[in-house]
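PROTOCOL LOG
Step 1. Enter all chains and additional molecules of the complex.
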Amino acid sequence: MAKELTFILAGTDYAATPVKLERKKIYGWTDIVATDRSGNVCDSVYLSPDDALIIPSGGLKQASVSEDGCWIEKGELTAYSEDGTNKLPIYPSSFDAPIVLKKKVSIEEFLDNDWESVYQLVNADLAAVVGDDIYKFDFSYRGGTNHNDGYLLNTPGGLFLFAGDHQEFPFVSLAEETAIDDTEEAADEEVDELDFSMF
Amino acid sequence: MRKINLSNDTKRDAEVAFGTTFYRPSPVFKTADGKKILNERRVRSTIATMDATLVNQYGEGLADALVNGDPEVDMERFGLKVDGLKKVFLTPEQKVAYGVTLSEHVYLPDGTEKEVRLEQPTEANIAVDGLPLRWTGKLIPRQKALRMFMFKKSYQVQHVNGLTYDFLFDMAKKLAETDSMMLLGGGSKGADPVVMANGGTSYRAFLEGRIDGDKYTLILRLTNMELKPINA
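Step 2. Run joint prediction.
Step 3. Record the structure below.
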């Protein structure tokens, strides 16, 4: 049975199973298929230029190794902040304990986030009590060092849980003009050839 | 910051800047004795150890070969560190393919194949001379927009001189006063989705504006997904 999140709002418990919202579930998806001159379907593989080694799809693995090249299991490692100074806190999974909904936020606070994931929650009673409010809470899907701000938002399409991190959009004055840097690389973009049929 | 060409409600356009300082810090992992570790891509399998290759090689004797030895492991190359890999295509005869044709197989959410067509790579359209992203006039109240779309990426739009300060401040003021987001469109008719980079995702783009005295914030919000119910 799928795991449920439990929310507590005004002293009442509400349970719902989060289902990740993905484009492919709404619009479908596109696969790129390569064919050679004879029309045969070709596999995508990696070629190592040094020794012409051909590595199939799935033939690579991200490995943790020590400076002297020894394999290290993830379980033996501790996560630190990016500068390597502070040990990162370990958060419990949000499935492990009820989430108490007590903090309402403005639409700006909700909008100013970089979203990692959005989940559909089906619970009509919870949707009704959330109403037009937006609730914010601590959220960690799996637990561990990964942690987001969670938001509960009721929409005409149902109730959704957003998980993301705050993104700053400071006010700027006339004096704070910036410069265009054409050499700045475009942000990494995932290639998605699906027809866009939202409007 | 990168360049973006925007037009306003009077169809005046200007090249301004956009960008973000947001990033998610990556944790550093250390061993119990405080030593940093490296994350590297290592070889797990090669073409010689693929299922299809082993079946071809051993046929019905594959099970015995697996019991008696380790043909599924390339002892020479397992765990090898690899850099500078190139993506290529391989024919069914396991030769590198040349003159490959790429096609798109489009599937519906239920998995039914809807269409097969030649690949249609996207082209960036945010900074095309003479083709600014257009202020379409389609305003959506913010309260409604945030309940309609999942905004996947957001960027701050900023002026590059005094003239563009006035241009962007005016946009932000109009949007703030209506508490709405403006749909932007690309292409000659201003109806195309917005593509930030060649080969990148097509998005619907909205502008959101806020003002505080003589300061402003103009935010370009990109979405490629509506908040719609899905079958669990």
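Step 4. Note key features.
The first helix of chain B runs from residue 51 to 58.
Residues 2-23+123-226 of chain B form a domain with the Ku70; Chain: A; Domain 2 fold (CATH 2.40.290.10).
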